[in-house]
Design a protein that fits this description.
By secondary structure, this protein is an alpha/beta fold. The protein has six helices and ten strands.
C-alpha cells in the first residue's frame, strides 16, 4: 500500500449540516451538530470548511477511519458537500440572491441553497426512479422558494439519471464544475 502517496475518503451519503464557523471558537459546534445529526457511540464528528465562514458537519464511524489508517497513514476525509460549496463560492463569490443548486452523483441528488452569501440548506436524496428526481427537486423548490435554480454538472462524474426535462422543471442557469479529483486536489491537497 506504500505506492499510494495520497488517499482521500470522499463521503457522499453521510447526512450533513451547515453551520457558521464562529461556533467552533465558542465550543458550541459539537453541541449544535449533535442536535441535528445522529452521532452514535463510536462515531466522530467531522467538520470541513466551506467558503471560509461556514462549516459542513457530519459524522464518520471511528472504526472505519481507524482501519483505513492502518493501511493509509495520512488518509484524509471530506464530504462532497464541502467540495461543492467551496467550488460554488469560488465561481460565484458574491451571492446576494437566494439560489438553489442541484446536482447528481451516481444515484444521489444533492440540493444546496445559498442566501445572503451563506449556505443555508443542504440535503441529499437517494434516487431510485427518474420520477423521484423530479419530485425531490420540485419539493425543495416549493419549500425553499429560491430566486434562481442552477443545475450543476460535475465534469467526469457518473450520474445514473439525467437532468429533468425543462417542461417539468425550469433551471435558470447551468454551471459546470471541475472533476471530483480536481476539486479534491484544490480544496484538500495531500500533505506529506
Amino acid at each position: 500500500f506504500d505506492q499510494f502517496s495520497c488517499v482521500h475518503l470522499l463521503l457522499l451519503d453521510r447526512p450533513s449540516i451547515c453551520m457558521p464557523s464562529y461556533l467552533v471558537s465558542n465550543d458550541k459546534a459539537s453541541e449544535v451538530a449533535a442536535r441535528h445529526l445522529r452521532v452514535r457511540l463510536g462515531d466522530q464528528l467531522s467538520m470541513d470548511s466551506a467558503s471560509g465562514k461556514s462549516l459542513i458537519c457530519y459524522s464518520v464511524p471511528d472504526e472505519t477511519i481507524n482501519v483505513l489508517r492502518e493501511y493509509y497513514h495520512g488518509i484524509g476525509k471530506t464530504h462532497i458537500v464541502s467540495l461543492l460549496w467551496n467550488s460554488i463560492f469560488d465561481h460565484h463569490p458574491a451571492h446576494e440572491e437566494h439560489v438553489m443548486y442541484v446536482t447528481l452523483v451516481d444515484d444521489l441528488l444533492i440540493v444546496l441553497t445559498i442566501k445572503n452569501r451563506k449556505p443555508v440548506f443542504t440535503k441529499s436524496f437517494e434516487i431510485r426512479h427518474k420520477d423521484d428526481l423530479q419530485y425531490f427537486i420540485m419539493a425543495c423548490k416549493r419549500l425553499l422558494q429560491p430566486g434562481q435554480c442552477t443545475w450543476l454538472t460535475i465534469r467526469e462524474a457518473k450520474a445514473n439519471y439525467v437532468k429533468p426535462d425543462e417542461a417539468f422543471l425550469k433551471f435558470d442557469n447551468e454551471m459546470e464544475l471541475p472533476s471530483i479529483p480536481m476539486l479534491l486536489a484544490k480544496y484538500n491537497p495531500c500533505v506529506s
